[in-house]
Specification:
The structure is a homodimer. By secondary structure, the first copy, chain A, is an alpha/beta fold. Chain A folds into 2 domains: about 5-205, Aminopeptidase; about 215-285, N-terminal domain of TfIIb (Single Sheet), CATH 2.20.25.160. In chain A, about 25% of the residues lie in helices and about 25% in strands. Chain A contains 6 helices and 12 strands. Chain A has helices at about 20-30, 50, 70, 80-90, 125-135, 180-200, and strands at about 5-10, 40-45, 100-105, 115-120, 140-145, 160-170, 210-220, 230-235, 250-255, 260, 270, 285-295. Chain A starts with 5 loop residues before the first strand and ends with a strand. The interface of A and B includes residues 54, 172, 177 and 235 of A. Chains A, B: This is Aspartoacylase. Chains A, B: It holds the Pfam family AstE_AspA_cat. Chains A, B: GO terms for molecular function: aspartoacylase activity.
Chain lengths: ~300, ~300
């Protein structure tokens, strides 16, 4: 039977997302808080140099450096590309990792609450989603597992045999909010409890159906031909992560006052609305569909 | 009679506070929106290099470089120290400025709404405060005018013969929110309307008493002897800018769970609660008393 023997809790992949950094520090000060009987837990602060610089990253986004082909490429030598190789040696190697489950802790400036992001498919993840949602009804389950195979996935959490992201907001970059830290701590505890019960084959009866959001694609801020932003997220959409956007709803406001309407044909559910870290790519939000995770 | 002939609206003193930058861009695209009959308005983007780097500043905080002694010191040569000298030549010189009123636009990550900050005293400011509060009842008037004489004041707005800050939040760093941009635009329009009526000696009847908050001092996050943070702003205080803190109220939560109570002897009113930009100095919030601005 499948067992989780080694769990890694990773904070500070992004240097200005403080909840994970401080939660890892707390776990290091009081290891019993992340300890369970059936597995070993280690805690890792992934990018202290970016934290010291008070930036998301020094040279490139560490959470985009974990494709197999990139990990194997000695020409990729900048700070985060180097950190990725070190973390892969420390916790992996990806594809044959000594880490059974990697829990990667992140913050967003968007109003997403506590969100469990699954980047791969399978019954282990489905049971975890059902367990977390049952014990934390306000939690959001987000699925992004059918776009890439693990080896092509660039995210840090794909380094483990299993891997998930815990994404909590809203929190401005470079700020530590108690309510957001509490939410992250709560979700991590539920995940650790789930793993313990999973290992002991002692899971409670789980709901057969769990609501989730499946990533479709991202959309960009309005721009002109010169690549300059000419508008912003509409105030009706701001802070309404997971709330439906219907065809014809206003989605952007241009700086000249014009409202831009959503032209899609189906209802979609936005996440990462107006996320600060995505401005470098002019991304306005991610669009999702609502799906159901079913247990057999 | 006192007349305001030259107004400067300054955005982007801090590179990751986007509302002022985009409002200045809008005014440059549609100058009639900041034009009035009795004075000339110019718009200035103070620190484009910091915006390009997506940082508050490159080398030092531009909004702390405007003391007379520093402007006159040729040894202060970093990027922002140099920008301050250039802006002083362009809009000043401080003490004999060609700019009659400088309006400096800022964002905070704190839940402060639209806040008019007065850094000097006098009937012009008192009338402006009364006018703005009368026309925008949710606006906050903040006074910080009795701690320094203008020549010792380091803020950019002290460069003008008159100068005020417009501080609007909550907005994460490096994000543009429509609601926050709208608030800033509304407050700036009221200030420009006030100046027009002031110049024309045509002000309406103003309230004799206007509520304001007077800055007392700032307090630091809990730290240990090694200078490491050991706690955070208490969740009961987070987002409650301008709400009273009474002696004995919880104000911080330590990472070990201990609550730290406010030990002052009087009721105080916090502002800039958990402001991201103040973490470099470990500042937790500013404390204020409630005062009344009286017109004669």
């Amino acid at each position: 039977m499948d067992k989780i023997k080694q769990v890694a809790i990773v904070g500070g992949v992004h240097g200005n997302e403080f909840s994970g950094i401080y939660l890892v520090k707390q776990f290091q000060a009081e290891p019993e808080r992340c300890r369970r009987s059936s597995f070993t837990t280690e805690t890792v602060w992934a990018n202290p140099a970016a934290y010291a610089a008070n930036k998301r990253y020094l040279h490139s986004d560490l959470n985009r450096q974990f494709k197999n082909v990139d990990l194997a490429n000695p020409e990729l030598t900048d700070y985060e590309q180097s950190r990725a190789k070190v973390l892969n040696a420390q916790l992996g190697p990806k594809g044959a990792a000594r880490t059974d489950l990697l829990i990667d802790l992140h913050n967003t400036t968007s109003n997403m609450g506590a969100c469990l992001i699954l980047t791969q498919a399978g019954p282990f993840y489905n049971k975890m989603a059902a367990y977390v949602k049952m014990n934390m009804p306000d939690a959001i389950i987000s699925r992004d597992e059918d776009h890439f195979a693990a080896e092509e996935h660039a995210l840090m959490c794909t380094l483990g045999r299993y891997g998930v992201l815990v994404e909590v907001g809203p929190q401005p970059q470079s700020v530590l909010r108690q309510d957001v830290l509490d939410l992250m701590q709560t979700m991590v505890q539920h995940i650790l409890d789930f793993v313990e019960l999973y290992n002991q084959d002692n899971l409670p009866a789980l709901p057969k159906k769990t609501e989730a959001f499946r990533y479709l694609h991202s959309i960009k801020l309005p721009m002109n031909a010169a690549g300059e932003r000419i508008g912003m997220v509409h105030k009706n959409v701001q802070d309404r992560d997971y709330q439906p956007i219907n065809p014809g709803d206003p989605i952007f406001t241009l700086f000249d006052g014009t409202e831009v309407l959503y032209k899609g044909e189906h209802v979609v559910y936005p996440t990462f609305i107006n996320e600060a870290a995505y401005y470098d790519n002019n991304l306005a939000m991610s669009l999702n569909e609502k799906v159901i995770i079913e247990l057999e």
